Amino acid sequence: MILAIDIGNTNIVIGCMKGNRCSFIERLSTVRTKTELEYAIDIKNVLDIYHINPHELEGGIISSVVPQITKSFRLAAEKILKKEIMIVGAGIRTGLNIRMDNPASLGGDLVVDAVAGLQEYKPPMLIFDMGTATTVSVIDENRCYQGGMIYPGVGVSLDSLTARAAQLSGISLEAPEHLIGKNTIECMKSGIIYSSAAAIDGIIDRMKEELGSDVTVIATGGLAKKIVPHCRREVILDDDLLLKGLSILYQKNKK
Hints:
Layout: E1 2-7, E2 11-18, E3 21-29, H1 36-49, E4 59-64, H2 67-81, E5 85-87, E6 97-98, H3 108-120, E7 125-130, E8 133-139, E9 144-152, H4 154-164, H5 184-211, E10 216-220, H6 224-227, E11 236-237, H7 241-253
Parallel strand pairs: 1-4, 4-5, 6-9, 7-10, 10-11
Antiparallel strand pairs: 1-2, 2-3, 7-8, 8-9
Helix pairs in contact: 1-2, 3-7
């Protein structure tokens, strides 16, 4: 069993993986001012909650899009596990054929998503990762990573709306009972949820035209479960995709 960690702009996802089976997933808030010791305490507390002895873990691996805290979190994890922790980045073997202008610019989380997607599903495929930003990864029928899209995430759109409209207060992300809202809160919920679902449906249609074939569509990330049930196109919801990818990369690169 290994410790798999994904550091995002809003949340840090922690899970224990045995092969492609996930024992648990927990999310911590990404706080750039925390010290190495504070993150070590967070990791220890999560493992204690699930009654996992750190010394029984084989090792760990981290993907991160927040360079400011990657080193601190790695040292924190090594402090708890007493083992070396891998970082997804230069020098990691992925087996992924990246056809972008600058392959090195591809975020570690997107690399991990793609590795897991190719292991679990049939290409060509689209992978929607719905976090602070919503990213779309496009993998063609030859298993090559062609590129994708990045647009504001659901939470970012909602925060922007409430920050710039004085009479609109913060709301929770739950679909209202009816598409047509009957009050301000219902209207906001309907607008955010269904516009996000419609965006996914529209992107799928356009990507299918671009690729000239049908596609497998996978959605992952913290907000995917809020939006995917309202999509009209077939979308596979896989909450564990990124942690599965980290487990695969760990096995490919362990000494």
